[in-house]
Amino acid sequence: MNGKFMVLVDIGSTFTKATAVDLGQRRIAAQASAPTTVDDVSRGLRHALEGLKLDPGELSQARKLACSSAAGGLRMVAIGLVQDLTAKAARLAALGAGARVLNTYSFQLTEADREEIAALQPDIILLAGGTDGGNSENILHNARVLATLPQPVPVVIAGNRSVAKEVAACFPQGFSTYIAPNVMPQIGKLQVDPAREVIRRVFMEKIIYAKGLDKAGRVIDGIFMPTPAAVLRAGQLLSEGTGTRKGWGDLIIVDVGGATTDVHSLGTGLPTRAGVVVRGLPEPYAKRTVEGDLGVRVSVLSLLEAVGVEAVAQAAGWPQEEAAQRAQRLHDQPELLPESGEEAVFDQALARLAVQHALSRHVGRLSELYTPAGLIWVQEGKDLSQVETVIGTGGVVVNSADPLAVLEGAAKQADAPLELRPEKPEFYLDGNYILAAMGLLAQEDPEAAFEILSTSLECHKLARREQ
User: Which of 55, 82, 86, 110 maximizes the CB count within 10 A of its CB?
Assistant: First the structure.
């Protein structure tokens, strides 16, 4: 075989998906999936690999890489000094690392905060606070509080570097501490990528073992990152390109799931119109947000609460009472799939509204500000109005009879003219479910990953509707 094939695996909470790629021909050679066996993920993993139907010799010699969101994914708590500054920077770093952020804390932790963190049982704590050479009292106080947690937790310290070692020394021997560069070394300056890499290293060293995912090591070479981080890495590769291939430029990926809707944006997000003043913390080029109340199964009742049952009923063409009943049933039985055209339309309506509201929270917006010099426009968040590429993934999107109707929820909305959403994007579908796989492959062979991903997406480009 001579290293011709590589196998990329996504161990999800429900299904384990395997993709075999032919590196020589830069194409997908085979794909298969099997239910994830939570008690021992290696069993479901073996079933997925067997489903590839590769030659046993080729399969045994192929390098096998994996990402995972099983066992609840990577659960984190982020702590900073000021809510709109270092605490927000810590949250951005955690989300960009593929974590599910359970809560964000700012200022000095209280006894109630400590009890709440203990109850949340995070996999990792990201402890930030203070610019370099700035406030040190706050992060030291918080370290001393965290050091009294009943169960030791890996702690990534990414705050004021002047006291980083002193902060680490606050923790008893049972805690594992990791020092990363400050997520906000100066006021108004973000530096989240180094902390993301440290979080990924902790994930590989500690969390995989803690969740029992190390059993997968019997079958594959290792689990290298959380699945959302792999998707973001694929988006970054597609956006930036490689040494020989030009990237697609700024883009958005929307992943609609049963529990959350994730939005990834790749782009600076700087103002695209003259005379606009930017306010707030700078936005990262690669940004991820997670909306835990906008899922279409486990979180469907909170989705109805967020968007209004009347909006869902109107979008689906259902009476409100029946819409509420269907949502309750989906919540109680999240494994349910549509059994009729009407139920499929209902799923589509849920997904579109999830996309619409998730984008509303992710993008920036304009507001008017009156000054002595006159009226000016102020931008908070990312300007994504000129983004030309929106990619949709997630079962409810990929399996929809009209995925374009779902993804159009990401575009500019007439009733929200000040939201900086894409105005005239092209829509693509991750029809082969390979975003996470290509994020893994990008570590080993970015040229092959870029070509395979580009080809797959171009094959699933959605035709625009006539205006």
Answer: 86
**What SS3 class is residue 334?**
coil
Question: CB of 282 within 8 A of CB of 188?
Answer: yes
Gap between the Cα atoms of 242 and 238, Å rounded = 8
Domain 74-204 adopts which CATH fold? Answer: Rossmann fold (3.40.50)
Cα gap 303→402, rounded to integer Å: 21
**Range list of H helices, 159-210:** 164-169, 193-202, 208-210
Residue 70 pLDDT greater than 80, yes or no? no
Measure the CA–CA gap between 46 and 362, rounded to whole angstroms. 38
Instruction: Read off φ and ψ for residue 189, nearest 5 degrees.
Output: -120, 120
pLDDT of the residue at 388 = 95
* 312 has pLDDT over 90: yes
**pLDDT tens, position by position, 356-401:** 999 999 999 999 888 887 888 999 999 999 999 999 998 899 989 9
The model's pTM is 0.87
> Exposed/middle/buried for 311, CB within 10 Å: 0-12, 13-18, 19+?
middle
Q: Are the C-beta atoms of residues 431 and 249 closer than 8 Å to each other? A: no
Tell me how far CA of residue 3 lies from CA of 21, 23, 453, in angstroms.
Answer: 11, 8, 20
Whether 178 contacts 155, CB under 8 Å: yes
Q: Round to whole Å and give the CA distance between 384 and 156.
A: 31
- List the structure tokens of 287: 């940004």
Strand arrangement of the beta sheet that strand 63-68 belongs to? 27-35, 15-22, 5-11, 63-68, 223-226
**Tens-digit pLDDT profile for residues 19-48:** 999 998 999 999 998 888 877 788 888 898
Distances (CA, A) of 68 to 200, 228, 419, 445: 12, 9, 33, 20
Residue 135 CA to its chain's centroid (Å): 31
Report the helix count and the strand count for the chain, using DSSP H and E. Answer: 17, 19
Question: Can you give the residue ranges of every domain in the chain?
Answer: 5-71+211-221, 74-204, 232-462
What is the DSSP pairing of strand 74-79 with strand 99-105? parallel
CATH code of domain 5-71+211-221? 3.30.420.40
d(CA 24, CA 339) in angstroms, rounded, equals: 42
pLDDT tens string 198-232: 988 888 777 777 667 777 777 777 777 888 889 99
Residue 315's CB is within 10 A of a number of other CB atoms, namely 21
Other Cβ atoms closer than 10 A to 229? 26
Distance of CA 388 to the CA centre of its chain: 20
